[in-house]
Design goal:
CATH superfamily of one domain: Jelly Rolls
CATH architecture of one domain: Sandwich
Radius of gyration: 22 Å
Number of strands: 9
CATH topology of one domain: Jelly Rolls
Mean pLDDT: 87
Number of helices: 1
Shape: globular
Helix content: 10-25%
Length: about 140
């Protein structure tokens, strides 16, 4: 290889490195799972007519949500505050700011704010179009 070709290759690699170093976006895996938080595996998730919904939910200090269940996949991201989730079998998990929760599917539970500031959640739901996001226990 002659000097000119080597120089072009070196310059190309340097330009590529400078260009890539100018890219400042960062990524961090917040959750990667094959199951809900109680270890129930996601199995055969073939969703016809899928619909994705993203909600921001605020739970005030001391507030407790009603006992409910989800019949679709959903993941909650705790943007702010402390959230405790309790099942109807008294199994519980507590989450803090920056943590994710792979929600239960088909199991009754409720969330409550156990901190001293409002809880802010960003919740991602995916299921068959028209499926209710939650169903309260009667």
């Amino acid at each position: 290889m002659n000097k000119a070709v080597k120089l072009i290759i070196v310059l190309f690699v340097m330009i590529l490195c400078v260009t890539n170093s100018a890219y400042s976006a960062e990524k961090e895996v917040l959750l990667k799972t094959t199951s809900t938080w109680d270890n129930a595996e996601y199995k055969n998730l073939k969703i016809k007519n899928p619909e994705v919904t993203v909600l921001k939910i605020v739970i005030n200090v001391g507030e407790k949500l009603p006992m409910h269940k989800h019949d679709l996949v959903n993941i909650a991201y705790v943007k702010k505050g402390t959230l405790t989730v309790i099942t109807d079998k008294n199994k519980e998990i507590t989450l803090h700011e920056g943590e994710c929760l792979p929600e239960l599917i088909g199991k009754y539970h409720y969330g409550k704010n156990t901190g001293n500031e409002p809880v802010e959640l960003i919740v991602f739901y995916i299921g068959k179009k028209g499926t209710p996001l939650s169903v309260n226990r009667k």
